[in-house]
Write a structure and sequence with these properties.
The complex is a heterodimer of chains A (268) and B (407).
Chain A (H helix, E strand, L loop, with lengths): L4 H13 L5 H14 L5 H15 L3 H16 L44 H4 L27 H20 L4 H11 L7 H12 L14 H19 L1 H15 L15
Chain B lengths: L1 H29 L6 H28 L20 H24 L6 H24 L4 H4 L8 H19 L20 H20 L10 H25 L6 H16 L7 H24 L8 H18 L8 H32 L6 H6 L1 H6 L11 H4 L6
Helix pairs in contact in B: 1-2, 1-3, 1-7, 2-3, 2-4, 3-4, 3-6, 4-6, 4-12, 6-11, 6-12, 7-8, 7-9, 8-9, 8-10, 9-10, 9-11, 10-11, 11-12
The chains are: A mainly alpha (268), B mainly alpha (407).
């Protein structure tokens, strides 16, 4: 079954932007995308990423990394993308000029739910902290407040995604071994089968994605998952690279707004 | 008068041997990662405290008690009081040797053994292993000693025993996380502070003058100068042996290997410092340096993770030193009977210690957690075991990261 192009773009945006932006900022980015992005052309994607980067003060290196990441996300199999945060398409509210001249108008959809709803896996986990499953899109432009993922879960997701990204960028040859070792360690996780299953699915993905790592679990479980990931890193790359990647991932996660409420250091 | 001068000399040597603990702390701390350096140094420090007390209370009696159970174990002089000044000095000097033997283990098992478990093992070693072998080798009634075994300052009793215990610990504990790849590759885990290691090497070198120099019968001994020059030449030759091995085999000339080479030269000369001449001391140290550098790689190839190459330095150096003492005994070169006794002493030191130490480690593993959990290896043992870290201003390791107050 083919995905509607607008939905695919939202899912791709969630996949690449969620680790970098707060939920509010991601929400805005999705709305911007909805208003301006009409196709998958390189110029449009660059213009969209540039606009998001400018609004969120992302540095040039990150922006440069986002261009291909977003483009690649659009080409990923559906199973590897987070769920569409706006599953219900909305009637057009207004026609906004495209970033690229001549692009056909796209009907805007309702404002998105919080970024956390981008992660389908979260809904699978029965936890006290409510993390939204796909939320019915509110009508018109006033977004209904939806429960957002707790800060520790956002930080955890960003931390693991940054670790994975670090391995992919610097040790691409060891990426598969790293994932296999992590999967092999998962049975040791002292948590519910549901959480283990969510983590298994996340490790199953061949691309790093913070959205996949939004796991509704208590802090202790998240810290244990970080530890299992560290052990897998040590086994795959050696302890020196593991320490370096973990330190860099913590720095990366500290950039999240949620990190002001929950320091990533608490997970390591 | 001579007696007082001798007493003062042994006192100085005692301080020098104790100063070797600082050398061990520097070498082992520097060769560990920053997140584990405090833990390693704490093991040396508190280990010295425990062993000091236990050796006075029990170890000295077992090793040097005037009454012996058939040359196997001492039966008197426990927790001695009212000793003469010379007797007290002798006890103190021997306590330093016991401390040194146990400190060898702390470096080998660094970065993954729990602090409490290490201290428990240190106590067991200072009660069950070191004094027993010291009795055999050094007590005039000891069975090895009566066979003619020569172990001048402890190649067997200190270094081979320490290394064999370290090997047992390394074997029982297993390697640090990620030390060996799936296909057997050895991954380097460099220490965090090589200048500290170099300083430690020099401190140990200085301390060795007391280690060997105090083991003579007195400062008026005609042998003192020879012992000290042998000691120095052994260290120099050890460093040169390591250098030669690295150059001839086209390996990079590493600081850590050079220091270990000179330390192995010192270890090798320890057994025969009083019975070798300077030329044979030079040869002994040189071969020790070569063997140590070669052996450290062989040990890693066996997937034994010795964090500071203590087994190569003290084990290979110790065994070679005992054999060299037999081979090059001044005035009695290559006497097969002497060499046989020396070999027996070496085999007994390694075999007895490895067996008992393995039992001790396994017994401890049943009653307490021997190995730190992977989470502690991740965070670093400094924080998880001691709630202190070595470099708070700079350390970005996960141990430091976790010091933040929980919100």
């Amino acid at each position: 079954m083919s995905i509607p192009p607008a939905s695919l773009r939202r899912r791709a945006a969630c996949a690449v932007l969620a680790p970098l932006l707060s939920e509010e900022a991601l929400d805005e980015a999705l709305q911007l995308q909805q208003r301006t992005l009409r196709g998958d052309g390189v110029a449009e994607i660059i213009a969209f990423i540039d606009a998001v980067a400018a609004r969120n003060l992302l540095d040039a290196a990150t922006r440069k990394r986002l261009y291909p990441a977003y483009f690649e996300a659009l080409k990923r199999p559906e199973a590897e993308l987070p769920f569409d945060p706006w599953p219900t398409a909305q009637p057009p509210a207004a026609v906004v000029p495209s970033l690229v001249r001549g692009a056909p108008p796209v009907p805007p959809v309702a404002p998105p739910a919080a970024m956390t709803s981008a992660a389908p896996v979260v809904a699978m986990v029965p936890v006290a902290t409510p993390v939204a499953a796909p939320v019915p899109a509110p009508a018109a432009e006033a977004p209904a407040p939806v429960p957002e993922a707790p800060a520790e879960q956002q930080v955890f997701a960003a931390l693991i995604a940054a670790l994975q990204e670090g391995v992919k960028q610097n040790h691409a040859r060891d990426w598969d071994e790293f994932r296999q070792r992590a999967l092999a360690l998962l049975p040791q996780l002292r948590s519910t089968p549901a959480v283990r299953e969510v983590a298994r699915l996340a490790w199953g993905s061949s691309e790093p994605s913070a959205a996949r790592w939004l796991i509704a679990a208590p802090e202790a479980t998240l810290a244990e998952l970080v530890n299992l990931t560290y052990v897998a890193l040590c086994e795959a790359l050696g302890p020196i690279d593991a320490d370096r990647l973990l330190t860099e991932a913590v720095r990366e996660a500290q950039r999240l707004p949620a990190a002001r409420r929950f320091s990533p250091r608490r997970l390591v | 008068m001579t007696e007082w001068i001798n007493l003062a000399w042994v006192g100085i040597c005692t301080a020098l041997v104790f100063f070797m603990q600082a050398g061990f702390a520097l070498v082992e701390g520097g060769l560990s990662r920053a997140k584990n350096s405090i833990n390693v140094i704490m093991k040396v420090y508190l280990g010295a405290c425990f062993i000091g007390v236990l050796f006075w209370a029990v170890g000295y009696g077992l090793a040097f008690g005037a009454r012996s159970a058939g040359g196997w174990i001492g039966l008197s002089d426990f927790a001695p009081t009212g000793q003469t000044s010379t007797q007290a000095m002798t006890l103190l000097y021997q306590a330093m040797f016991a401390t040194t033997a146990v400190s060898i283990v702390s470096g080998a098992v660094a970065e993954r053994m729990r602090y409490g478990a290490y201290l428990a093992f240190a106590c067991l070693m200072s009660l069950l292993i070191y004094p027993v072998y010291a009795h055999w080798a050094w007590n005039p009634l000891g069975w090895l000693k009566t066979l003619g075994f020569v172990d001048f300052a402890g190649d067997g009793a200190v270094h081979t025993v320490g290394a064999a215990a370290a090997a047992a610990g390394v074997w029982v504990l297993g390697p640090r996380l990620g030390r060996f790849g799936r296909d057997g590759e050895v991954r380097d885990i460099p220490g965090h502070n090589l200048p500290m290691v170099a300083l430690g090497g020099f401190v140990l070198w200085v301390g060795w003058f007391g280690f060997n120099g105090g083991s003579i019968s007195g400062i008026d001994s005609a042998n003192l100068g020879t012992v000290l020059i042998n000691t120095h030449l052994g260290a120099c030759a050890g460093g040169l042996g390591a250098l030669s091995f690295m150059r001839l085999t086209k390996r990079p000339v590493l600081l850590s290997a050079s220091i270990n080479g000179s330390l192995c030269g010192l270890v090798a000369i320890t057994g025969g410092a009083g019975t070798l001449n300077p030329a044979t001391a030079l040869l002994t140290g040189f071969v020790g340096g070569v063997l140590c550098t070669w052996g450290a790689e062989r040990i890693r190839a066996l997937r034994l993770d010795d964090a500071v190459d203590a087994i190569a330095v003290h084990g290979i150096g110790g065994v070679w030193g005992l054999l060299a003492t037999g081979l090059f005994f001044e005035g009695d070169f290559f006497n097969p009977q002497r060499i046989g006794v020396q070999a027996l002493g070496a085999v007994v030191a390694a075999g007895f210690t490895f067996a008992v130490a393995t039992l001790c480690f396994k017994a401890l593993a049943r009653v307490m957690m021997l190995r730190a959990p992977t989470l502690n290896e991740q965070r670093g043992l400094d924080y998880t075991e001691h709630h202190e870290i070595g470099y708070p201003e700079f350390q970005e390791a996960s141990g430091r990261l976790n010091l933040e107050t929980q919100a």
